[in-house]
Write a structure and sequence with these properties.
By secondary structure, the protein is mostly helical. The chain has one domain. It contains 8 helices and no strands. Helix 5 runs parallel beside helix 8, helix 6 runs antiparallel to helix 8 and helix 7 packs antiparallel against helix 8. The chain is elongated, with a radius of gyration of 28 Å. It starts with a helix and ends with a helix. The model has no long low-confidence stretch (mean pLDDT 88).
């Protein structure tokens, strides 16, 4: 019976040491997350001011113009002179220039080019998605870890240590939850932009491929 008491103390003491040793890493990571959130917010604002807003009327007009084009050179001119994002122009121009490929090979190329755009978008969204999930979790850890020493200090009447522990707990909670909430908002905005972008790209890619089939012989 007596042997179990020291073992229990060792286990609880080990858990306490592990949890308290996480205090500094959690705070450091939260600081990094807060800085990243500020930087990403600036990037989103810049992206909003610079991005091309493509109305559905422009996409519809391009679809009709491509269908009525007399040659692949005309199709390429329609693409390059249009007011769509440059990345979409690059994808469509590469398709137009692949007229020496078979129909199956062109479709494979089109899928790969579109998938490359999707991968680029996923990489862009990954940072905010990670912060959305990790930020509140680290904020909760930063809240609970200093509460142990704080409650112990309260039992000993040490109000100063308790106040310091509560300050750390509240600060980490605010940083973690605030960063996660802001990055969630930024992800939702960006995802809406990119879904519209990919929808337009899919539609224009299908139209270009359909037009190129007319020249297969």
């Amino acid at each position: 019976m007596n042997s179990t008491i020291p073992m229990g103390n060792i286990l609880t003491g080990s858990i306490d040491v592990i949890s308290q040793s996480l205090t500094l890493p959690v705070i450091v990571i939260l600081i990094v997350i807060a800085i990243m959130t500020i930087v990403i917010t600036g990037m989103v604002i810049s992206e909003y001011s610079l991005r091309k807003k493509v109305p559905v009327e422009l996409t519809s007009r391009m679809i009709y113009e491509i269908n009525e084009a007399d040659s692949l050179e005309d199709v390429n001119k329609i693409v390059t002179s249009s007011d769509i994002p440059d990345t979409q122009k690059d994808v469509l121009s590469q398709l137009v220039k692949s007229n020496n490929l078979t129909s199956v090979s062109r479709e494979a190329l089109a899928r790969r080019l579109v998938e490359n755009e999707e991968e680029r978008i996923d990489n862009t969204l990954r940072k905010t998605d990670v912060i959305t999930r990790v930020g509140p979790t680290l904020g909760l850890m930063g809240t609970l870890i200093p509460m142990g020493p704080g409650l112990a200090a309260l039992g000993m009447g040490d109000i100063t240590t308790l106040a310091q522990s509560l300050t750390v707990a509240f600060d980490t909670t605010i940083v973690g939850i605030g960063s996660g909430a802001l990055c969630y908002f930024l992800s939702k905005i960006r995802r809406g932009w990119y879904e519209h972008y990919l929808s337009d790209l899919d539609a224009l890619t299908d139209v270009v491929l359909d037009k190129m089939r007319e020249y297969d012989g």
